[in-house]
Amino acid sequence: MSQPLLSVRGLCKRFGGLIATDSVDLDVVEGEIHALIGPNGAGKTTLLTQLFGELSHDAGEIRLDGEPIDTLATPQRVRRGLARTFQINQLLPDFSMLDNVALAVQARQGHSFRFFADARRDKGLRQRAREHLTAAGLAHRAEVKVADLSHGEQKQLEFAIALACEPRLLLLDEPMAGLGHAESEQMVAMLSGLKGRVTMLLVEHDMDAVFALADRISVLVYGRIIATGTAQEIRDNADVRTAYLGEGDA
Amino acid sequence: MSEDAITHTGSPAPSTGRALMLLALAVGLIALPFLVQALGQPALVPLATRVLIYAIAAASLNLALGFGGMVSFGHAAFFGVGGYVVGILYRTYVDDGLFLGLIPGTSQLLITLPAAILIGGLLALTIGALCLRTSGVQFIMITLAFAQMLFFLFVSLKAYGGDDGMTIRRRNELFGLNTRDDITFYFICLTVAALVFLALWRIIGSRFGMVLAGIRQNERRMAAIGIAPYRYKLAAFVISGMGTGLAGALMANYLRFVSPDMLHWTKSGELMIMVILGGVGTLLGPLFGAAALVILETVLTSWTEHWQLILGPILLLVVLFTQGGLNGLFNRLGIGRSER
Amino acid sequence: MTLVLEQLLNGLQFGVMLFLLAAGLTLIFGIMGVINLAHGSLYMVGAYAAAFAAAQTGSVIIAILAGLAAAALVGMAMELFVLRRLYARDHLDQVLATFALILIFNQSVTLLFGRQPLFVSVPPALNGSVELLPGLTYPIYRLIIIAVGLLVALGLYLLINRTRIGMLVRAGATHREMVRALGVDIRLLYTAVFGLGALLAGLAGLMAGPILAVQVGMGEQILIMTFVVVVIGGVGSIRGAFFGALLVGLVDTVLRAFLPGLLRQVMTGSEADALGAGLASMGIYMLMAVVLLVRPKGLFPANV
Fold this sequence. Notes:
By secondary structure, chain B is mainly alpha-helical. In chain B, 71% of the residues lie in helices and 2% in strands.
C-alpha cells in the first residue's frame, strides 16, 4: 500500500468525562470509498468534524497526503482538498440552488475580493455551477430558493456543493439519512459513479448502501475503532457482530 | 428579519417595474428643489438635503448590518469622525497651521470628502478588527462602547471645542460653486448620494457581495467551502465606515458645525432606526427610512418638544408588528409585487 | 497613601454599583437570550422613585421601598408587554425595541420631573464618616453601598448554586426545552427573573441618588459602562460580571483621580485636566480592547 491520502494517528477528544474519540488510527487510501460505521453515539460525526477542523482534537495527528493539517482552520483544509457534507443541512436558505453552488465554485477559484462586476452574470461561475447541478441531477431546479426545496433536494444540493469544491477527499456525513427509497438509490448510483475519481470517507447507517459502495469499512464503537477491513471481513468479524451488527440497529 | 426583502436584491435582473420606479425616483429627486420653490416652500430643500446625507450614512450602515449581518451600534463614531475631519481641516486652514505638525488644512470639498472617507475607513479597520473577534450580543455592546470612547475623546479635546463643538464658518469649496446656496448644496449631496448608492449596488451584486450575503446566512457553510469569514466581514465593515464617514463630512458642511453630538450613541440608534424603517438588507430602503425619520422628527418637533414620546411608541410598533419595515409594508400592500 | 486607599474604596463602591446592573443584565441575557438596552432606564426609574418618595415623605424606608417597587414593577411590565414578544426575534429587533423604550422612559421622566437634575441628600443617620485606619476616614454611606453590593453578590451566588431556581438559571437558554419539560411555567420564570434583574437595577439607582445627580440620561451612561463590564467579564457569566465590575470600577475611579495630576506634570493645568478627564474616561474602553485581544470571550466566560 502506498502512502494513504488521509492518515490519522492516536486521535483523542474528550468532552468533560466523556471520551468521544479514543486513540483513533485510520487510513484512507487514494481512490477508495472508506465507510465508517458504528452504533448511534459512537462518535462518527465528532470524528468527521475533527478531521474537517471545526472541532479541535486534544491529542493525535491528522495528515493529508503526508502533510500535517492539525493546526489548519477549516477554510485552509478545504483549500488543501477536503470537503464535507453535513448530516444537518448547512445551506444558504435565501439563495437559489445555483447561487449556493456558484459560491463554492467562486471560493474554489479564490477570487472573492472583487467588488464591482455582477457575480450573477459571471459566465465562468454560472456555467461551472450549472454543470455541477446537472451532474447531481438538479439542473431543472437551479433557480429555486433553497428554503423552498424538499429535504431530499437539499441533501443532494449539499452533495453538489461539496463536489463543486473539487475535493481530493470527501467526508460524507450520512448522505442517505432522511431520503426516500428512490432518492437513496439515486444517491448510491451517484456515489458509485464517482468512485475512483474522488476519495470518500462515508459515515452511513444504511448498511445496504455501505456494503454496496465501500471498498473498506472501519467500525467505530464508543470512540474506538474496533475493526477495519473489506465488507466480507467486517461481516465475518466476531467482535463487530456482538458489538454492533447483532444489535439490530442496522 | 425580512426574508422577502432580501431576496429582492437577489433577483437576477431588475424587473421593468423596478426600473420605472428608479427612474421616477431619480426624476423626482432632481426636480424636487424646483418643485418646492414653485410651491413656495424653499425650506424643504435643506430638509431634503438632510435626508440625503442620512440616507448615505444609513445605506452604508446597512451594508454591514443588513447585508453582512453585523449589528453595529457604533456607527456614530464614523459619522462624527467624518464631521471632525472637515472641522479640523477647516480650522487648520483658517489658522494656517499644520494638524499634528504635519498636515496642512484645507477647505476644498474634493480633499475633505476623500479625507473623511479615508479616516472613516481606517477607524473602521481598527474598531472592526477588534469587534469582529466576537459576534452576536457582544458585538453590539462592543461597537457601542468604542463609539462612546470616541465620544469622550472629542469631548475632552478642548482645542477643537470640546463639549461645545466648533463652528465651520464657511462650507467647503467646490469648483467655485456657491456651496452656501441651499440648492447648489442639495445637488452636491444628491450627486454624492447617487454615487454611493451606485457603488453599494455594485458591491452587493459582486463576488464579494455574494460572499458577504453567504456569511450572513450561514458562516459554517462558508467555512466549509473554503471561505474564512473574518476578512470579508472586516472589509464590509471598513467600506461601511468609509461611507458613514463621508456622510459625516457632508453633515458637518451642511450644519457648518460639528460637535460630539454627532458621535453620541443615540446617533447610532437613529441610523439603525432608519435602516429598520426602510427595510433591512434592501438597497433603497435606507433612503426611505432616512426620509421617514427626518420628516417624522421635523413634524413632531413642530408639535411638541417631547416628540420622542411619540417616536418611541411608533418605533416600538414598527419593530413588534411589521416585518421588513416600510419596504416590507409596501410589498405586502401589493406595491412592487411583480418582484416576487 | 491614604488618598490611594480612599480612591480604591471609591472604585470598589463604583464597582459594586456596576455589578448590580451587570448582574441583572447577565441574568436576563443568560436565561432569555435578550439584550435589554432599557436596563439603564430601570436604574433611572429606581433613582427617581426613591428621590421623589424621599422628598414627599422624608422617610428613608419608604424611599427605598418606592425605588425597589417602582423598578421591579416597571421591569415586569416591560417584560410582559414588550420583551416577551422579542424572545424569538433576532438581536437587531431587541436592540431597536428596547431603544424605543429608552426614548419613552427618558421623555416620560422629563415630562414628569423636568430636565433639572434632582439632588438627594444622604439619609441623616448615615451621614458621617468613620476612621478606618489612622488618617483614613471614609463616608459611612459609601461603606454601606459596598456592603449591600457584596451581600447581593453573595445572595446571587447562593441563589444560583444552591436553589432550584438557580438550577433553572444555569440550565439557561441552551436547554429551554428541558426546562419546559420539567413542568416549569417558563413564562412565570422569565417574568420573575426579569423582575429580579429590574430590582437590582433599581437598588443601584436608588443608592446612586445621593452620590450622583438624579437626571435623565443617567441610565444610558451607566448602561454603556455595564456593557464594558459584561464584555470584560464574559457574556452570560455572573462571576464574570462580578469581577469585571470591580475591575472596571477600580480602573475608572483610579484613572479619573490620578491621571490629570500626572498630566499636569508635563503640561499646563487646564489642558491637563481636560485631557486627563478625557483619557480617563477612555481608560476602561482601552482595557476592554486589551481583553478582547487576549481573551475574546472575556475573562470568565460562561460554561456553555
